Write the structure tokens for this entry.
Amino acid sequence: MTLPRMQPGDGVAWITGASSGIGEAVALELALRGWTVAITARRLDQLEEIARRADGLPGRIVAHAGDVTDPGAMKAVIETIESVHGPIALAFLNAGIAPDSNGLLDIEAFERTIAVNLVGAARGLAAVLDCMAPRRRGHIALNASIAGYGGLPGASAYGVSKAAAIHLCETLKFDCDRRGIRLQLVNPGWVDTPLTRRKDVPMPFIMSPQEAARRIADGFEQAGFEVSFPRRLSWLMKAINLLPYPAYFWLIGKAARRSGTKAI
Ligand SMILES: NC(=O)c1ccc[n+]([C@@H]2O[C@H](COP(=O)([O-])OP(=O)(O)OC[C@H]3O[C@@H](n4cnc5c(N)ncnc54)[C@H](OP(=O)(O)O)[C@@H]3O)[C@@H](O)[C@H]2O)c1
């Protein structure tokens, strides 16, 4: 189904988790493309500094604090954004964490990761859907990861949260289409951000947040459901996930042993 592409004149863009990394870079890229961008995260001082850096761009950035794990916060921040800056036409649900874990299955890290990457994303999704559904227009994109395509060693919390986020998007796409809302899935490979800088694992084809942001913003302007990059990594991982389990575990295990990967 082809739904109208949202333009800067249709309303504001809202980005969660925009105080660093991919969210920060997408905010600046959208401001460069003429959008008014409302950015949220927990660190308001960081957000305000990013907003100042948009001075002189064709669009502008406005900062509001918003913790995706706070049950009431997403609805409240959306109400503020819409009353002050206008209707949200484009929402990029990007907030995410990849905490270090202790032991085979660190349940504390697992719960924290699911709370931000999955339940937090679903909170933002539910709140923005409530605004867009009566208008029967809007564009929502959720940032998952290529790490959600299939089980990877050491990624029990992060991988599960991203696999579930992908599934959530696939599931909601049918209802969103019927309501005139465009739902998109963003699956990046490795991007050089504070999240990945703490990790000591091989990161093939890693790219800068600015390059990732350009690809994401280009993806927003195209019709496809999934925006995934770099293509060679995403197609490789998609192909590997089509293998029968014995071949899949052999191949991934061999690659992990070769690279010394312990945790993502
Ligand atoms: N970097 C990669 O290689 C890569 C690859 C695929 C997907 N991703 C995904 O891209 C997204 C952004 O990650 P990044 O790499 O840009 O990492 P990052 O620089 O660490 O950014 C994470 C953002 O999430 C925000 N955040 C964390 N907890 C939050 C909470 N409870 N409420 C609201 N915001 C919260 C952080 O802001 P505050 O701390 O100020 O709240 C920060 O702005 C994540 O969903 C990540 O899984 C990253």
Summary: The chain has nine helices and seven strands. The pocket of NAP is lined by residues 16-23, 41-43, 46, 67-69, 94-97, 116-117, 120, 143, 145, 188, 190-191, 193-196 (CB under 6 Å). The mean pLDDT is 95. The beta strands are 12-16, 36-41, 60-65, 88-93, 138-143, 181-188, 226-229.
